[in-house]
Amino acid sequence: MKTETVAMILAGGQGSRLGKLTKQIAKPAVPFGGNYRIIDFALSNCANSGFNDVAVVTQYQPLVLNRHVGNGSSWGLNRHNGGATILQPYSSVDGEKFFKGTAHAVYQNIDYINQKDPEFVVILSGDHIYKMDYEKMLDYHKKQGASLTVGVIPVPWEEASRFGVMNTDKTDRIIEFQEKPENPKSNLASMGIYIFTWARLKQYLADSQSKSRHMDDFGHDVLPAYLRNSESIFAYSFEGYWKDVGTIESLWSANMEFIDPNHELNIRDRDWRVYSKNPNTTPQFLTETAKVENSMITDGCYIAGEVNHSILSHNVKVGKNSVIKDSFIMPNAVIGENVTVEKAIVGEGARIYDDTELIGTEKEISVVGYGEEVGGYSDEK
Amino acid sequence: MRNKIAPILNLVEYEDKLKPLTDRRPVASLPFACRYRLIDFPFSSLYNCEAESAALFISGSGHSLYDHIRSGSAWGLDSSVGGGVFTHSQVKLKSNRSAETKHDPFYYEDHYNYVTKTKADYVVMMGSSLLSNIQIQSLLQFHNDKNSEVTVVYKKVGRSELIEDTVHSALILNNENSGEIEAVKDIVSMDKDDSLYLNMETMIIEKKTFLDYLHQAKADDLDINVGNFIQYTLDMGLLIFGYEYTGYLKAIEDIKSYYDANMDMLDEDNFNALFYRADPVRTRSKNSAPTYYGETAVIENAQFANDCEIFGTVKNSLVFRKVSVGENAHVESSIIMQDSVIEEDTYLKHVILDKHVYVKKGARLEGTAEKPIVIAKNGVVYAKGESKEG
């Protein structure tokens, strides 16, 4: 069968606003919701939308991400026809192919797309928490005969100036694009989801190289060029839960929302599952002294303390007389005895020693980094 | 130690006293400890010694077992070079049939073909009903140090740790230090205060010795199992040693021993002995969401798998995947298997719910630790306490 669609998940970003949580790993690999990493949502959407050819484009600190994605088998993307592919910068006779921006990352991997020779290329970012049927958007793209369709989501007007917003006419054709405008003319924010008719985009990317015009970024360069040339660009409006978890506060609040058993994402829905790479680990063990309330807990956890309105990812240990409240604990973290953790994010493999207090506020979430150690004996005592 | 061993799993095991849990599955695929099946333990031993392939001999429908094993990838048995799970179904064994007919000729041929086609130097035979976590590397090392032809794994246990009419056998050692085996003996006739060396039905054999035995077994129409093998080895005057296992062990022979083995896991020492050792226990991983514990949940000394939703009280119990426990439900000293639903205002104590059992609002079930109540797969339990087959 001919490949109709290739999906490219851009997962090379650092996510510098996540501070020490992304020092060692790329933002799409940051754990989320107990059993997931952020990129699982985009990957699962691809699998559930029937996309078989999915490339994950990595650049910044790719080790954890690459191991997580592997051959794509966790998402059923290891079929003989297509599958998941990890694309990383490489060097060639034309020099090193590090990515200067989103569009440049696609251009540098043009060989991969040419090999598949698809009709459409779907550009996704690996940074967002949402469930979306991309096939519906692709149908819309085909129906409109568009050369580009941009996924947009209505946001509250007062927040519109934080996003790239699309002004549309009555037929949903995009007529203007404003990047983080002071006075937005629209509240339709770009979700960073683009469906391109490949033949057209290929021309733009190739021409830019020969004419030394920059086509580095989809938002800054490609979209404006398409607009100038009156290409047919349409907005596809998405309604549903969509969250950018690019900051400590948004990552924390998205996790806190996620605890709610009636959350809009409905992760227990068997018809649209969120897949992840599941580690091999033991059952969750709640001892006689454990007290667990309104929380999500994952396999491999050992809990002897109190857990209230929190998410514990796999293999987290919580010692006796410790209290975890309003917090998100990432995989393999060890929390000792008599520890209080409140309004916090504790990084993967972090250790919090006995008798430590770690208390944040909603405005300033307390963060323990990847593998960081807190408390214990120190010379200052 | 790649390529060194050809594992043969004899999964035609005594199951009559485990009914109804074994109505639709062999002992090997009995669910255990929230997210495992008994086959995971021998398979993890194989994974940890880097075995490349395995041969399974089972009788009856293998559906539940094959569904669990699939390609064997969870235990590294799916390599395209030398890998594979070779399944041999519908094996008729004497222990499992009423009329004694001769063995199917393929029974011996299948063993022969598997062992000769692998490049292995040794054959390892294992079962699944003696729950344990055996290190095959150490067994192999012992076997080589002793220049043994056959080495059998045993554990020192009390007679009372096994059921009265147990099918298992004991080893008679000529001296505990050397470990040389003198005889094999049925346990049934032993005194209840005796201690004994339980034959764990796991052994390692030189490939040539195994093939010689096959020849003999075919001529005499014998089952291929560890007990017969020991007898043959002794008759031939070959060197045969016992290797002592000191870790957690439970013989799963009836409902009570199955129940006790699960309950044992609620004791941290047992749990750690089986799971937190250098060699992890692996199972087929399934996609899942974390388990949600509601505001009304009260949990005390219990284990859960992912994907559950708990709003009631769960005490001293083991809860498998995708189970929901409603508000004001009380679950105590029970085993709740995958996909079961326990509605609100219910009471369960000393109960085993097989997969996909529905406990309706207001229902009460109370067994005893000696005789837990078992509800078969797909059953529905109504408020009056009547249950219905699914």
Automatic annotation (TrEMBL), chain A:
Keyword ATP-binding: yes
Boundaries of every Glucose-1-phosphate adenylyltransferase/Bifunctional protein GlmU-like C-terminal hexapeptide domain copy: 289-364
Binding site for alpha-D-glucose 1-phosphate: 164, 179-180, 190
GO molecular function: ATP binding; glucose-1-phosphate adenylyltransferase activity
GO terms, biological process: glycogen biosynthetic process
Nucleotidyl transferase domain segment(s): 7-257
Site keyed Could play a key role in the communication between the regulatory and the substrate sites: positions: 59, 98
Keywords: ATP-binding, Carbohydrate metabolism, Glycogen biosynthesis, Glycogen metabolism, Nucleotide-binding, Nucleotidyltransferase, Transferase
InterPro entries according to UniProt: ADP-Glc_PPase (IPR011831), ADP_Glu_pyroP_CS (IPR005836), GlgC_bac (IPR023049), GlgDAde_trans (IPR011832), GlmU/GlgC-like_hexapep (IPR056818), NTP_transferase_dom (IPR005835), Nucleotide-diphossugar_trans (IPR029044), Trimer_LpxA-like_sf (IPR011004)
Class of the enzyme per the UniProt entry, highest EC level: transferase
The keyword ATP-binding is assigned to this record: yes
Oligomeric and partner information: Homotetramer.
Entry function: Involved in the biosynthesis of ADP-glucose, a building block required for the elongation reactions to produce glycogen. Catalyzes the reaction between ATP and alpha-D-glucose 1-phosphate (G1P) to produce pyrophosphate and ADP-Glc.
Family: Belongs to the bacterial/plant glucose-1-phosphate adenylyltransferase family.
Name the record gives this protein: Glucose-1-phosphate adenylyltransferase
Naturally occurring in which organism (per UniProt): Alkalibacterium olivapovliticus
From TrEMBL, chain B:
SUPFAM superfamilies with a match to the protein in the record: Nucleotide-diphospho-sugar transferases, Trimeric LpxA-like enzymes
A matching Pfam family: NTP_transferase
Ranges where the Nucleotidyl transferase domain occurs: 17-157
Alphabetic keyword roster: Glycogen biosynthesis, Nucleotidyltransferase, Transferase
GO MF term list: glucose-1-phosphate adenylyltransferase activity
CDD domains per UniProt: LbH_G1P_AT_C (cd04651)
Keyword Phosphoprotein recorded: no
Domain called Glucose-1-phosphate adenylyltransferase/Bifunctional protein GlmU-like C-terminal hexapeptide: residue spans: 296-364
Keyword Acyltransferase recorded: no
InterPro entries in the cross-refs: ADP-Glc_PPase, GlgDAde_trans, GlmU/GlgC-like_hexapep, NTP_transferase_dom, Nucleotide-diphossugar_trans, Trimer_LpxA-like_sf
GO biological process, one term: glycogen biosynthetic process
Gene3D superfamilies named in the record: Hexapeptide repeat proteins, Spore Coat Polysaccharide Biosynthesis Protein SpsA, Chain A
Family designation: Belongs to the bacterial/plant glucose-1-phosphate adenylyltransferase family.
NCBIfam families cross-referenced by the UniProt entry: glgD (TIGR02092)
Name of the molecule in the record: Glucose-1-phosphate adenylyltransferase
Lineage of the organism: Bacteria, Bacillati, Bacillota, Bacilli, Lactobacillales
